[in-house]
Amino acid sequence: MQYALDQKGDLSVQIAQKLRNAIVEGTLLVDERLPSEKELCDRFSVSRPTVREALKRLAAQNLIRTQRGASGGAFVNRISYNDAYPRQITSYTLLLSMNDITFQTACEARFAIEQACIPLAAKRRDPDHLAQMRAEIHYQDQQGLSDNGFCASDVNFHKALVHAAGNPVLRFQIASAIEAMQPLMNMITFTQRDRAVIIAFHTAIADAIESRDANAASQGLSELADYTISLGEQINAKPD
Prior knowledge:
- This protein has a two-stranded antiparallel sheet with strand order 1-2.
- It folds into two domains: 11-76, Winged helix-like DNA-binding domain superfamily/Winged helix DNA-binding domain (Arc Repressor Mutant, subunit A, Orthogonal Bundle); 81-237, Up-down Bundle (Four Helix Bundle (Hemerythrin (Met), subunit A)), CATH 1.20.120.530.
- It has helices at 11-25, 37-44, 48-60, 81-98, 103-115, 118-124, 127-140, 147-163, 168-189, 195-210, 214-237; strands at residues 64-67, 73-76.
- The mean pLDDT is 86.
- It has eleven helices and two strands.
């Protein structure tokens, strides 16, 4: 079967998109071998360099892998959450930096999606999750801790909270958003925020999660969100 392409567009992009759709829709299955380069050339009526460029695009997205030898070729990859995680963070970061997103909008999104994890975290947390949150709180209270160190620990605390929910899909979506948004939020507010206040909020949230009190944990996160947004408003209100 041959497929018609828009000759005015980038042919390699179109071929990559059609193959990607076949993978997503399940027409091409995990570990299945793709048609050979020659077959793809015939199917799309394009040159071999065009097909190779399309395959390079799919490989860059980790959708396929190539193997050499008589039994080699291009095969559909099984994508793991860990493989996709860095690209998700990059996408979030680029969206925030390239679009006119206000600090308040970013904060609202960041904390709203984390709230979805609170009931599950309160129900499913284990000693390791609690230990990670407590360790980050202890680290944040160290004398002489740099702003970068505090910010990194802030991110790690919230990632531990998300991991406690025990849902890999939520963890993929929310933890990556935290890794992208939280550093930007910290960068804006670090000159104004009171570390002791942040630590108190973190402690209250950890205490509530340990007690399996989802309502108290949700309230603590809401108060932390309000505090963070208020810092952003104070900074924006200052004259240049």
